[in-house]
Amino acid sequence: MQHPQVVVDMTKLKHNLTYLSQYLQAKGIKVAAVTKVLGAYPELSALYDSIDSIDYLADSRLDNFKHYPKQSTKEKIQLRIPMLSEVDQLVQTVDISLNSQIETIRAINQAARKFNTSHQIILMIDLGDLREGVFETQEIDQYVQEIIQLDSVKLLGLGVNLTCYGAIIPEYSILEQLIQHKQRLEHTFDLTLDIISGGNSSSLYLLDEGGEGIPAGINMLRIGEAFVLGVETAYGKKIDNMHQDVFTLQAEIIEYRDKPSLPIGKVGQDAFGQKPTFVDKGLMKRGIVAIGKQDVDVSNITPRDSRVEIIGASSDHLILDFSQASQDYHLGDTVAFDVSYGSLLNVFTSPYVKKTFIN
After folding, report:
1. What is the mean pLDDT of the chain?
2. By three-state DSSP, how is residue 34 classified?
3. How confident is the model over 113-158, as pLDDT tens digits?
């Protein structure tokens, strides 16, 4: 069996997709399922597409949409605000995009007209996380005034991104500001905004028992991490009735022997230009598994055997301390790791990590 590999339990993933999307659907919230962390792998895109309670499929990279099922009837959303250089491809590939620059919106309108189509946009509002979004109320109004005059672009609604950059928690009072913008714009310009997208998996904590709930009027969430890891992302709390072990990263032991814990000689820079520090723990049972920084952020994976410790890595080698391991390991054995959202993104992007799907 080829290693390293990431093993996907498709039964557990289907449960997570179905359970959470149906839960949100029952609360009147549409679900845009985000596939970017999985590289929109065809097997996984097909699974996402098969869930009736998922309303939209969403990704950040236009190239990933070609892996979606050709027969899919779900509307497709481009999550990363578009580049001017890709607007022609954008209007031919997806139905909806998130936008924050009027110059780009004008270019999208021209491209849609050129290809005799129309394109829907969600105007992103920056409520403090300071990633994408229009920040000033006056500028929001100016944008909307111009957008509604365009002939090939439809203003579908408003959206906000929180937590991803500035780690700002989507509190009830913050999301209420998005509703206030909606109400003002609808009144001022005599229009209807169909979608108010209140963030991502970090907004789910508001739905916890005893929580404030999500403000009435928020009718769409863009869900990625909660589906794949079974957690909300504001506080990292596990979601009841969801699986947290859908994905398992496996790597093979390629060296296994007793060695000192402290390198011998004058310490300089490592392969990545850093000067490492070491703790002398005496002789240890050291092993190397065949995966490294080229494949995954090694600081964001955790051995399933809690008594195995990651002590360092280079581009192709991950060095582990097996001295206190809960079982005997041997050359050629595999070591299993849990993954974070970021490390999952890494391994699905790496061509050197095999993807294995089990039922």
Report:
1. 95
2. strand
3. 999 999 999 999 999 999 999 999 999 999 999 999 999 999 999 9
Rama region for 276: left / alpha / beta (φ>0; ψ in -120 to 50; rest): beta
DSSP 146: H
Question: Which domain, by its residues, includes 253?
Answer: 247-358
Let me know if 295 is exposed, middle or buried by CB neighbors in 10 A (0-12, 13-18, 19+).
Answer: buried
DSSP secondary structure, 155-188, as one string = EEEEE---SSSS-----HHHHHHHHHHHHHHHHH
128 and 15 share a domain? yes
- Number of domains, the chain: 2
275 is catalytic: no
CATH number of the domain bearing residue 287: 2.40.30
Residues with Cβ within 8 Å of 177's Cβ and at least 6 positions away in sequence, in order, are: 125, 127
Q: What is the CATH number of the domain that holds 75?
A: 3.20.20.10
Q: Compare 18 and 210 and report the one with higher pLDDT.
A: 18
Point out the catalytic residue in the list 12, 14, 30, 36.
Answer: 36
The one-letter code for the residue type at 52 is: D
DSSP string, 257-279: EEEESS--S-----TTS------
Residue 236 lies in a domain: no
Residue 141 has phi, psi (to 5 degrees) of -65, -40
Asked if residue 167 and residue 119 are part of one domain, the reply reads yes
Question: Is the same domain home to 217 and 261?
Answer: no
Q: Single out the residue of 90, 164, 65, 70 nearest to residue 124, CA to CA.
A: 164
Claim to verify: residue 189 and residue 264 sit in the same structural domain: no
Same domain, 160 and 31: yes
Q: Are residues 189 and 329 in the same domain?
A: no
- Cα separation, 37 vs 344, in Å, equals 7
The predicted pLDDT at position 1 comes to 66
Q: Cβ of 311: how many Cβ atoms within 10 Å?
A: 15
